[in-house]
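Attaching the record inline, Q. Sequence:
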Amino acid sequence: MHYRSREVVQVRSAYDCDVLVIGGGIVGLSTAYAVTRAAPGTRVTLLEKEQGPARHQTGRNSGVIHSGVYYRPGSLKARYAVRGAAEMVKFCAEYDIPHAVTGKLIVATEKAELPRLHALVQRGRENGIPVRELGPAQIVEAEPEVRGLAAIHVGTTGVCDYGAVARQLGEASGADIRYGADVVRIDRRPDRGAAVRTADGTIVRGRVLVNCAGLHCDETARLAGDDPEMRIVPFRGEYFTLARPELVRGLVYPVPDPAFPFLGVHLTRGIDGSVHVGPNAVPALAREGYGWGVVRPRELGATLAWPGSWRIARRHWRYGAGELRRSVSKAAFTEAVRRLLPAVTPDDLLPAAAGVRAQAVLRDGTLVDDFLIKEGPRTVHVLNAPSPAATASLPIGREVARRALAALAAS
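Structure, as predicted:
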């Protein structure tokens, strides 16, 4: 450990809270909720730089409650998504949050995809998920406008309003939640806890620090004095809304490429009845780069300076070129959609808000495939929690809370 004197915030004996959480997305709010549920009376303070919760990954996804069918058996993603999907439905029902268990189709449109589709059947069964195989006629029966060679139906997939879930988690946690609190300095002392300074000069002291900063989690880890051994490389996912929502009844996905953590362009009927189309996956030029016009040179420079970024580019340039083509060409994006939904036209695709995926990348260019949670002295860092983290947020929150409370007990 070393501390640069100009960045040090002195830690004093008086604590403002027991557990100090940075980040007001669904994982940070779920962690606060889990801490106060597991250990009533524990004082929790949550700092979020935005003026409200769920302004980034949580509030900009397609609202899908994922089943867990895609994820490697035994992985955190598989275990937490399967468990989290059931818990999310129960949580939404308990608090009267809009949700629906709709099921979804994963459709193979080419012969080369059939082995991967059959592998998903096996993976789903290993993960304890009910999966039903469909032929072309059954696809049309379920989704009259969708075409494919074969499909599987996954019954436990659903949709909900994750922004409402995040707000409810915050209210139910009883935590001291402070919005507009942008963390700029951290002084973490293994023997004393952590003190955090926000941009307005406020200092908050906690006995244990939890980093749920999402798109900025690696930077926050370094502020705390820990080397996360990864970097967040932001990928923007661009969406359209379907002008003719009647073309799609539910949720329709392509067969994903197992080499990438992205699920491909899919069709999602949301809880409000609209149909989202997308996303693609293109490099963002800023951590919160929701359009090509958003460029932050310092953040872009940090991405380009990370060796893993260049190794990804060399390894997957063909895939990346296709994603970029679909980003700049609506005709190319439409072509990708027409593989599943032949009736769609460019005029059917209306621009919608984009999202940015906080993807952890290792130095060797490996895209971290599972959730990644690491610990430091009196600190827990959530370093990779992209999709299906919203689905899995309740189990993730409990795991992070367990680690934070263990550190609290040892302090």
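Confidence is low (pLDDT under 50) at residues 1-13. The two ends are 18 Å apart (CA to CA).

More tomorrow.
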